[in-house]
Amino acid sequence: MRSSGQNQKPHAVCIPLPAQGHINPMLNLAKLLHHKGFHITFVHTEFNYKRILLESSDHESINSSSSFRFETIPDGLISSDAVSTTQDLTELCVSTQKNFSAPFRSLLDRIQSTENIPAVSCIVSDGLMSFTIDAAEQLGIPHVLFYTLTAMTVLCFFQYYPQIIERRISPPKDDGYLRREFMEQTIDWIPGIGSIRLGDIPTPIWATNSDDPILNFIIDQCSSTIVNRSSAVLIHTIDALEPQALTSLSSIFNRIYTIGPLSLLAKQISPDTGIEKLRSNLWRNDSDCIEWLDFREPASVIYVNFGSTTVMTSRQFEEFAWGLANSMKNFLWIVRPDLVISDDVVPLPLRPEYLFQIKDRGKIVTWCDQVLVLEHPAIGSFLTHCGWNSIFESLSFGVPMLCWPFFGDQQTNRMCCCKKWGVGIEIEEDVKREEIERIVKEVMEGEKGKEIKRKAMEWKREIQKAVNQNGGSSYLNLDKLIEEVLLCGN
Ligand code: UDX
């Protein structure tokens, strides 16, 4: 039997899509809820939790005693034994739909029958894991869908994707020229978006047939009938960045809250429980890079990071490597072990001739604490794959960007950065070393660089307003979400 005292504590079960870019904002949200008095169960896949434990020792000690507990469910993938590489995102998404529901229900049943743990009182789930709504309905508790993406991307998912099949929109299959022509076409019928290039809509606009698994995954997840069974929708953004898209979304969803950037909000939690130190890195941080930055002049370093899922060919990799080297600027480059699709035993930037050429101007590591890096005064700009967390974190510290998107929402984020918010410069998809050299010099010392830095600083100020503990919109919205939704089942 549970004591009445324990019963009174609200208990949120937080379940992210099991990929780094979704786990990080969910973990930060969970820390904030914990800080507001919630007991937290955070659900990882077994595969990811194994990797996280390899990189950090914090989790076990906290699990044994505290009100912030980690639990795991299997991901249903056969490849789950090789813990060193990024999982295939398509397989993972399809598997969440097919295989996660039953173990998630069993986990909830187990938690509900465990003594000394408060009864689960709400579920906060990734927006792309709507199967969790069934569980909340069965338990009769509030449920929140959390989109770790921009409002613009969510709007494209809901308003554009169903049309891909209905209007038979698909790019020509093999012809590069015709594909480029297709991507240049604009449409103007998504409410709240205005005119947009097809190439700026989140992939799989690139899908050449209606059986594409990711296309169908998104269409299944992003149906307003399903989503409006959830108590509320939370979007990782701030109103000032995308007012029209949010207005348009408010006609689809019953209740929307905007909160962000979660990395900044979580950083402000007072360090009293150790929870604020929790990390969820799938790779080991190289803390040396902060010391390396300490010895660099202010705004003298270009930071290069392609996130957790981007891969590139060895040719693209070489073009980046020589472009950076030839720019003669300082750079910190994060090269995940699985970034390059290559048979080379030693990738170029780790070969002696390259290291000799860059001397101490460049530092190459496999993973870093990105938020610490971006707030470091030595960072002058960020060459990014345009993952939403990366962009939001970069804007938080007023760092201008060079944009080379890979897939998913990144094309849309690139467009927002370069065209709407004025904080980025585009890099051609077919990357060339001469272009990288030119564009790196431009962002670090050219007129365009100064202009986008000024805009980035304006957005930084806007973000600081949102995360102000006295009346900032993100704090107010967090409190509203708790009072109006999460505590409503109690
Ligand atoms: C994925 C998608 O690619 C992205 O477009 C989507 O918006 C979220 O899911 P990912 O590719 O990993 O994410 O990019 P991003 O959104 O930038 O998230 C990466 C996260 O890992 C960020 O929070 C970043 O701070 C962190 N990170 C990344 C590190 O802490 N260290 C690193 O070296 C690299």
UniProtKB/TrEMBL annotation:
InterPro entries: Glyco_transf_N (IPR058980), UDP_glucos_trans (IPR002213). It comes from the Eukaryota. Pfam families: Glyco_transf_N, UDPGT. SUPFAM superfamilies: UDP-Glycosyltransferase/glycogen phosphorylase (SSF53756). One of its GO terms (molecular function) is quercetin 7-O-glucosyltransferase activity. Residues 13-160 form the Glycosyltransferase N-terminal domain. The chain crosses the membrane at residues 144-161. Keywords: Glycosyltransferase, Membrane, Transferase, Transmembrane, Transmembrane helix. The keyword Signal does not apply. The keyword Transmembrane helix applies. Belongs to the UDP-glycosyltransferase family. This is Glycosyltransferase N-terminal domain-containing protein. It comes from Solanum bulbocastanum. The lineage of its organism: Eukaryota, Viridiplantae, Streptophyta, Embryophyta, Tracheophyta.
